[in-house]
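Reopening this ticket.

The earlier resolution said the output was attached, but the attachment link was broken on my side. Pasting everything inline this time so it's all in one place.
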Amino acid sequence: MTTHPAALAARPAAVRTGRIAALAIGYGALSLVDPRELGPWARSAHRTARATITAVLVADTPGERLVGSIQDGVVAGSLEMGFSELTEHLDARGVAWLGRRGVPRPRVLLAGLSALSVGAAYVLPALLERVAERAEERAQERDGELEDAPSVSLDEATAALVERLLQAAGPQAAGADALRGQLAAARREDLPELTDVVFEVTEPAARAVPHTQVWPVQGAFAHEGLRFLLQLHIDGGVLEALTVVPDVEDPDDQDEAYALLVEGFPLPRADELELIAETA
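Inline output:
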């Protein structure tokens, strides 16, 4: 009899789910017991059981490791055993506190919370790891879109923005002539959903020095009542991009500004810029 590949793939997940359930039930069941009412041998067994579950939980939980899964589990189990007196003391105080506030059968509540904590210890790291993986996948997809984007002729309005920033730095600004020469033949990547402009410059006749920099003059402008800065980036002595960054301090305004950037909006006209020169 041949087992379907999907069934084989599902087995590890099923085994893991069963293990989570067993540990959660075991930890919850131990919380139903008041260690103070146990004899010496039973109390020692109770502590050992809690330490064992803690060791297995830490060893089996996904995420960063201090040393290794087994070593981390052994350390966690040892700490659980070593702090048993303190844990039992806190357990008794918690039960008493709940009882004084009219909670019926407080140990049942603690058992449920203990079981949930075990499940959360498994689920949350895996969930966060999946979210991080998905974010990385989306970033890679976005990078691929940027790399594969076709180029189009540079429009006059964008060229005028760059020219105004170059002129504002003064006639003796280092690299301005080289960048101006590149601007005449530059193209832009066709990314209409982006506020930023990514340049494409092939075989420049001259390169700007310093080779990598943010141009020392920025352009401030307002959009939807919020202030932004237009920055010209140079990489390898070549025009790289015009980027827009928020210039607001209030956290709510920052959130709104970044939301506008994500949505995308047209750049201002060159004569709308308030020029800000970098000072030493």
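Reporter confirms the inline version is readable. The first helix runs from residue 5 to 31. The helical segments are 5-31, 40-60, 69-82, 84-100, 106-148, 156-168, 176-185, 251-263.
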